[in-house]
């Protein structure tokens, strides 16, 4: 067992039992987007964090329990917001299509 989610980011060295993980991939027309940013907004819409996607469109946040919004910004694409719920001990996998 490699410790990675199928087709996603590797989880080697991460204790998934004590983390609330939000991760996923940004795509456009079925292909990974290599230039984009994903923002993590709290329940009230306040900015919490931002990460650039990898060359394969992947991103990951370590969040607290609760409801969050992922805001995706990419050149030439409309902004996309996705609601997600994070919980300690689980991985919220999110696919974001632009």
TrEMBL record:
Name the chain's protein: DUF1416 domain-containing protein
* Top-level taxon of the source organism: Bacteria
